[in-house]
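Think of the structure tokens as a kind of shorthand, similar to the way a musician reads notation: each symbol stands for something richer, in this case the local conformation of the backbone. In the example below we present two proteins back to back. Begin with the first one, reading the sequence and then the tokens, and try to describe in your own words what changes along the chain.
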Amino acid sequence: MGGGGHGGGLTYKGVTVHTPKTWHTVTGKGLCAVMWFWILYRAKKDGPVVMGWRHPWDGHGDHGHGDHH
């Protein structure tokens, strides 16, 4: 198995894990932050429905459909 041998890294039991470049680290942390912001945003919006505390059709108020007599 040839793997380039450039840059530093850590070898354990014959497997070398190379040190990531700075832009990989920064991009990974940025995307991780976006993921957690999205998860927390959706939990704020959908949490009660997912947890079973509220039905999805409850709490929308009157949308002007009129009375169905």
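Once you have a description of the first chain, move to the second and do the same.
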Amino acid sequence: MMHEPGGVQMAKHAALCLMLLPRFLLAALMLWLLDFLCIRKKVLLKMKGRQDSPDDPPVCVSDSNKMFTLESLRAVWYGQKLDFLKSAHLGRAAPNTEVMLVQERRRVRILDCIKGKRPLILNFGSCS
């Protein structure tokens, strides 16, 4: 297996970041808006001296449970990156990954298991 030079890898990483940035910023904006709306509602209710109506869900915004945090932004970035780099995409051909035939104890490609025009069914369950 050949390794790419550092400059090529860096360029690929930079291109990936540029492609993911708009999606990430939109998700970050949504998290910030959720926090802003919840905090605004809590402040307005306190200013009016009212409590939430029974129909409204409880607003529990504090410093410890905000949506717009460094940890949540890291999770969003990681999730966006995983989603972008996955091999299966809606509307495209399925990836032909390697699987283990349990009974025969050998590795094959998924599409090697197709028999004629019959549909191929994969069972991802577990046995105990």
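Compare your description with these statements about the second chain. The CA atoms of residues 67 and 98 lie 39 Å apart.
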